[in-house]
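Please fill in the sequence for the structure shown.

STRUCTURE ENCODING:
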């Protein structure tokens, strides 16, 4: 079976290739220094360049596809796709629950996977939530590293993936390789199924943030800063297990889909231009 180390290789190349640091303000300007440190974005010129490229790709490709998907595909079908994609992430979430010592959450994740994979027709129906009241949650190796005390590092805006940081980028690669679906099966049919899953994940993710991103682009004076702030707030809340502090537009490599069809509402805090996430409190 061919080894698919694409996610790890891409992560390594991005980290090695980073360049274009922002100039730190002089110590004689303490307010500017404080803002610089709060933003945690020393690579801002490079990040903004990638953001501009991503926006161009989104404008000509991703957003039109997402709009067509919402228009043409009935809501029950979209709901089933989203449930199935969340169910496929359950083994990864289960692994990270265990690595964080969250046995109760791991038990719920395992129960959801078994129930939805069987009674839920392969995960198309969230029977675990609907009939048994077992709510889902997201988890990823970036969160696990944070629980272990690994710092987030500087903010990154990555090609196609969006907002992230070195810790979450590493976590993204580890989750990809540790997933059983990375190793399961071989042959052309299996590869096609993997690509279909990847494509559906991209389309589903973009569709569910259509309204949020449209609002950000329409109302924010600096959408890049808004998304940077929202991403850091959301990741801090996910690590603390206190619920999302920003909408899923702040996604990026730190996503942990496994929540069925619920989508966080837009919160006023999204419009702030900086965020200093609190340390995880377990």
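FILLED IN BY: designer on duty
SEQUENCE:
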């Amino acid at each position: 079976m061919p080894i698919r180390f694409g996610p790890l290789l891409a992560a390594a190349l991005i980290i090695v290739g980073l360049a274009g640091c922002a100039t730190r303000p002089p110590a004689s300007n303490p307010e500017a220094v404080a803002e610089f440190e709060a933003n945690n974005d020393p690579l801002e010129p490079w990040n903004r360049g990638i953001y501009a490229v991503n926006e161009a790709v989104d404008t000509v490709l991703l957003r039109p596809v997402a709009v067509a998907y919402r228009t043409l595909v009935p809501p029950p079908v979209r709901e089933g796709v989203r449930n199935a994609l969340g169910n496929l992430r359950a083994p990864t979430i289960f692994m990270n629950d265990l690595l964080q010592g969250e046995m109760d959450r791991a038990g719920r994740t395992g129960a959801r996977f078994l129930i939805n994979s069987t009674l839920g027709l392969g995960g198309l129906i969230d029977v675990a939530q609907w009939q048994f009241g077992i709510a889902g949650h997201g988890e990823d190796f970036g969160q696990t590293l944070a629980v272990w005390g690994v710092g987030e590092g500087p903010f990154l805006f990555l090609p196609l993936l969006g907002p992230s940081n070195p810790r979450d980028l590493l976590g993204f690669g580890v989750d990809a390789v540790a997933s059983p679906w990375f190793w399961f099966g071989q042959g052309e049919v299996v590869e096609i199924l993997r690509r279909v899953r990847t494509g559906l994940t991209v389309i589903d993710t973009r569709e569910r943030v259509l309204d949020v991103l449209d609002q950000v682009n329409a109302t924010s004076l600096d959408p890049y800063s808004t998304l940077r702030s929202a991403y850091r707030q959301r990741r801090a809340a996910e690590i603390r297990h206190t619920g999302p502090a920003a909408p899923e537009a702040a996604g990026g490599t730190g996503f942990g889909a496994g929540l069925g069809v619920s989508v966080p509402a837009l919160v006023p805090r999204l419009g702030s231009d900086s965020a200093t996430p609190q340390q995880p409190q377990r």
